[in-house]
Amino acid sequence: NAGVTQTPKFQVLKTGQSMTLQCAQDMNHNSMYWYRQDPGMGLRLIYYSASEGTTDKGEVPNGYNVSRLNKREFSLRLESAAPSQTSVYFCASRAWDTDHNEQFFGPGTRLTVL
Amino acid sequence: AQSVTQLDSHVSVSEGTPVLLRCNYSSSYSPSLFWYVQHPNKGLQLLLKYTSAATLVKGINGFEAEFKKSETSFHLTKPSAHMSDAAEYFCVSHSGSARQLTFGSGTQLTVLP
Question: Looking at the complex, does the CB of residue B32 fall below 8 Å from at least one CB of chain A?
Fold first, then answer.
């Protein structure tokens, strides 16, 4: 199993450009999540999808959109990138079978917006 | 709302000495708590998790944590630090129907030779 995969690994954008970050998991997990990581702030939840067909806002959703394409894939879109969106983005997934299941994280996408 | 506070942003220890990384949580009920580790330029890896089955939780690589409800703490310890333990450590709780995670701000562990 590859676990959680993310593409691309690195990206540089100019202000105003758009892009989509891709995430896929092969663990048959129900829930998927997008986080951003900034120095000294831990990880903050952008959006999540509790199950296929549903998405909900997290703590910092402004400037982002998401699509749960199917059970495996959950993408994050920046419609008009801003320098404040320079960050490391992590995707995660989680199974439902118990309340205590942990989330499994991808390797991250390092995004710089100039 | 739940919150997690990591009391030290940086901890330095010498190789072979004990490690203590401190975490306090706030919750109106017993939460599920986790410690994750992040090595430089890597994703997050689960070290251990508290699920209410036992207050002393053993994890990978010799780490363990003790859940103390009276102190609302979940401190991470290791008897003897190794150079490979140098990383950032996050104390995490989860809540909500979709089990959204709440992260502490992280503790950077440095291990000196």
Answer: yes
